[in-house]
Specification:
The protein has four helices and three strands, in the order αβαααββ. It is of the alpha+beta class. The protein has a single domain, classed as Thiolase/Chalcone synthase (Peroxisomal Thiolase, Chain A, domain 1). It has a three-stranded mixed β-sheet, sandwiched between helices. A hairpin with a 3-residue loop joins strand 2 and strand 3.
Length: 111
């Protein structure tokens, strides 16, 4: 795969799918308490966060602890956020990912 093109695709897909799920739910980025992105690499996470214009303190990052755990990365990051108290009952959490075959998606949920 073309690394640079994959990077650009991932950043665009994560930001646009986050915007779309919020729009469908009648929410805005200001409503987000925590963004839980797929933990593919820190450069993608940082670029997507900047493109979506969300504060760094609202993004859970675990890649430095566990690496890219593929399909389980969002679940692991969410579990860590809950266990550490960064995500609390009633808060809006947006989970967003991309993966094999250039697939992507997002979900907004209240804990």
């Amino acid at each position: 795969m073309e690394g640079r093109e994959t990077f650009k695709f991932a950043v665009k897909a994560m930001a646009s799918s986050t915007e779309r799920v919020l729009e469908q739910a009648g929410l805005t980025r200001e409503d987000i308490d925590l963004l839980v992105p797929h933990q593919a690499n820190i450069r993608i996470i940082d670029a997507a966060r900047k493109r979506f214009d969300i504060d760094e303190d609202k993004v859970i990052v675990t890649i430095h602890k566990y690496g890219n755990t593929s399909a389980s990365s969002i679940a692991i990051a969410l579990d860590e956020a809950v266990r550490s108290g960064r995500a609390k009952a009633g808060e809006l959490v947006v989970m967003v990912g991309f993966g094999a075959g250039l697939t992507w998606g997002a979900v907004a949920a209240r804990l």
